[in-house]
Amino acid sequence: MFNHVPSYPGDPVLSLNQDFNADTRTPKVNLSIGMYFDESGRIPVLRSVGSAKNELRAGHGPHPYLPMAGLADYRTQVQQIVFGPALADRLRDRIATIQTLGGSGALKVGADFLKQYFPSSKIYMSDPTWDNHRVLFEGAGFEVNHYPYYDWTTGDLRFSDMCQTLSTIPEQSVVVLHACCHNPTGVDLNDEDWTQLASVLRKGNLIAFVDMAYQGFGDGLKEDAAGVRKLVEAHVPVLIANSFSKNFSLYGERCGALSVICDSSNEKDHVLGQLCAKIRANYSNPPAFGATIIARVLGDPALAQDWMKELKEMRDRMHRMRSSLYSRLEGKISEEARARYIRQRGMFSYTGMTKDQVVRLRNEFAIYLVESGRLCVAGLNDGNVDYVASSIASVVAG
Ligand code: LMR
Asked: To 5 degrees, how large is the angle CA 181–CA 97–CA 299?
């Protein structure tokens, strides 16, 4: 019956992570998947999360279904974190926020919603972008196109080419953007760029769909959301997919959200209802555990403060590992290639290494990067950075 089903070639990130786990060599280093590992190479359980978990365990409550839109307290906290208290309070009646299965779930529900209400719109995403963006939007039935973003020769942002392209695309096209810590390049828009982009989007009557998976991993919670908030203030129609997988170190709990900025309270009610309809048709309602932890942490001023401190510690460690790799590569690779490690921001460095070099790193040194040359700096630590630097130097030298 099923013999016409073709084999699945695998996912460039998730399948590689499984290969890493199955690799029995030592030493081995996982710089592929976007997960934060601490100095001892472990996925941390944040103190704030641990405290909230202990309190929940003490509760031993029942496990009812959540509403289709998710946990109310969680959705309120999402708005506070994504938009900041002032904007969130001002727009409270106009933001439709639903709890989703991670950031990917937010992108998928948002894509399904857009496909139904903007059936002839096309999608434009950065070149390059996270591999799964294309999969998600094509899966929702969209035609996917790209706008220029990254200059492979200089490692810079092609901002004027990006604006030029976006100013020629059809009205109501959907422009997929990365709020911060661009995946995979680590190259972001600056403040002025966001202002200019807002005006291009407004003029073209375009819809922005912003993916914010790394809030707090670039410069800070507020700083990393500045671009999104700017688009909202400029009255650009915006959908925002945010994720707590990385900044709460709660990957498997699938905690994300989708927020849609509407023009009125009435419009918000309609949009929220239709988002719930999409959820009901897909998975009925979201799981409770992770969202309850996050709502508990963010709803308690002392725990929230502690979480922000822990987030800063993760961010600072990633910055330190960038500098560490940079200094160890001195004289070993070109200055231009070396500078990328400190110029780029967030969890990833786009190293410029070729697929052959990445494969050699994996085969000869058990060091895993994504084949595009993307390296997750959060997998580096003081114990492996020398080994990684000398291995990179060796494959780059030929
Ligand atoms: C990544 O890009 O490595 C992460 O966002 C994990 C994923 O789902 O691909």
From this structure: 80
